Amino acid sequence: MYIEKRLEELGIELPESSEPKAMYIPCKQAGNLLFVSGQLPCKLDGSLAYTGKLGESLTLEQGQECARLCIINMLSAVKYQVGDLDNVKSVVKVQAFVASKTGFDQQHLVTNGASELLFDIFGQNGTHARTAVGINQLPMDAPVEIEAIFELQE
Q1: What angle is formed at CA 29 by the lines to CA 7 and CA 33, rounded to 5 degrees?
Q2: Which of 100, 137, 142, 150 is least enclosed, having the fewest CB within 10 Å?
Q3: Domains of the chain: which residue ranges?
Q4: Integer Cα distance of 57 and 52 in angstroms
Q5: Shortest CA distance to 144 belongs to which of 30, 73, 41, 42?
Q6: Which residues contact 61 (CB under 8 A, 6 or more apart)?
């Protein structure tokens, strides 16, 4: 329960895992890898914390907060799948999609909100390969969506 204790120390409460909004599953395990579907920046009640685009209606700091919320929701899905977050050996890869106004070029800094949180929670095991992509639109007008691959304990 080390990771659960770390979340508590950081003041993070995981939401209940929610039902998918379309035809997919939240997590798919292949061997000791767990592929987690894209997560949106939802609050504990399931509503989006923000809508809109970075560089237009949202600031860099709001985008980083969205990235953190995506990770919190992701950890809820992971916990639901594997039962205990201590079953996570490492974070392998993070891919972030940032809805951005043309000319906004700080998707990598938005994604730092997710990367820093994963490091704060998992330490060196939270470091990962990463992609940060700027796009025109996300589902439900979400500003950020993040997917990831986790390595599980054998």
Answers
A1: 70
A2: 137
A3: 44-152
A4: 6
A5: 41
A6: none
pLDDT tens by residue, 8-30: 999 999 998 767 778 899 999 99
Q: How many CB atoms lie within 10 A of CB 123?
A: 11
Q: Residue 134: what pLDDT?
A: 98
- Closest C-alpha to 89, from 6, 4, 32, 147: 32
Q: The whole model's pTM is what?
A: 0.96
The encoded tokens of residue 20 equal: 């998918």
What's residue 1's pLDDT? 74
Burial zone of 110 (CB within 10 Å; 0-12 exposed, 13-18 middle, 19+ buried): buried
The structural architecture, per CATH, of the domain 44-152 is 2-Layer Sandwich (3.30)
How does 18-34 read in b/e, with b if 16+ C-beta sit within 10 Å?
Answer: eeeeeeeebbeeeeeeb
